[in-house]
Design a protein that fits this description.
Radius of gyration: 17 Å
EC number: 2.1.1.33
Number of domains: 1
Order of helices and strands: HHHEHEHEHEHEHEHE
Strand content: 15-25%
CATH class: Alpha Beta
Number of strands: 7
Catalytic activity: guanosine(46) in tRNA + S-adenosyl-L-methionine = N(7)-methylguanosine(46) in tRNA + S-adenosyl-L-homocysteine
Oligomer: single chain
Largest sheet: 7 strands, mixed
Number of helices: 9
Distance between the termini: 44 Å
Family: Belongs to the class I-like SAM-binding methyltransferase superfamily. TrmB family.
Pathway: tRNA modification; N(7)-methylguanine-tRNA biosynthesis
GO molecular function: tRNA (guanine(46)-N7)-methyltransferase activity
Length: about 250
């Protein structure tokens, strides 16, 4: 059941550790390093191609190396949640549909996945979801202002099973620094994986970060906001485990 979104996420060399206000502790840019996704070609269906052409201009925002004007893109001001590597967008669309009071930013590099989510946006008449087809770490680093997100979702990133590939994993100390710097106080970083060794790695990395607090003793029960995909349901029927990690961005020190 692994790899559902994993080819579409990315990692970085560790950035400067953020100050409590979310800004970089050193005056130097975050640099990109090893990527954790492999950009694979896939067949784009006729429907997906039509959605990309007709709906893309409205719902797909271009990457830019500067903070985006999200209020203008969504036409309102609301709590914002960014998802890294949404795959075919099934869970993303359902979450956006069930939480119309929030705005959602889905980041994905795989063209068929972008087309599939656009079709879901159309079918469900969603207005609180935008897509960026680009490297997720660069989007989070460049387009999202510090302490501005209410949530960050990372569902089923590629675990890179082989030891020599562990350096490609998304959840590393440098990514934790970046994620914590972009979440506002009380913001939630929610990760899920079906690969237990990666779950243990995530737990160790995130528990070690001074700005992140585990909301559970270890792993968390699956929150109601994360729906089960058909992919996950099939794995659970086969006895596969799934581990959720829900961390909260600490408030500012007194």
């Amino acid at each position: 059941m692994t790899g559902q979104a994993g080819f579409f996420t990315s990692v970085m060399h560790p950035p400067p550790i953020p100050d409590p206000d979310g800004t970089a502790a050193q005056d130097r840019p975050l640099t990109r390093g090893i990527r954790s996704f492999v950009l694979r070609t896939g067949r784009t269906t006729t429907g997906q191609a039509r959605a990309l052409a007709e709906l893309g201009p409205r719902f797909v925002a271009p990457y830019a190396p500067a903070p985006a004007d999200w209020d203008a893109l969504f036409g309102r001001r609301a709590p914002r949640v960014l998802e890294i590597g949404f795959g075919m967008g099934e869970a993303t669309a359902r979450i956006a549909q069930e939480h119309p009071d929030k705005d959602f930013i889905g980041v994905e590099v795989h063209t068929p996945g972008v087309g599939a989510l656009l079709l879901r946006i159309e079918a469900l008449e969603l207005r609180n979801l935008r897509i960026i087809q680009h490297d997720a770490v660069e989007v989070l680093r460049d387009m999202v202002a510090p302490v501005s997100l209410a949530g960050l979702h990372v569902y089923f990133p590629d675990p890179w099973h082989k030891k020599r590939h562990h350096k490609r994993r998304l959840i590393q100390p440098g990514f934790a620094d970046l994620a914590a710097s972009r979440l506002g106080a009380g913001g939630i970083l929610h990760c899920a994986t079906d690969w237990e060794p990666y779950a243990a790695h995530m737990l160790d990395v995130l528990s070690s970060h001074p700005l992140l607090r585990n909301t559970a003793e270890n792993y968390a029960p699956r929150p109601a906001w994360r729906p089960l995909s058909k992919f996950e349901q099939r794995g659970l029927r086969l006895g596969h485990g799934v581990w959720d990690l829900v961390f909260e961005r600490r408030g500012e020190p007194a």
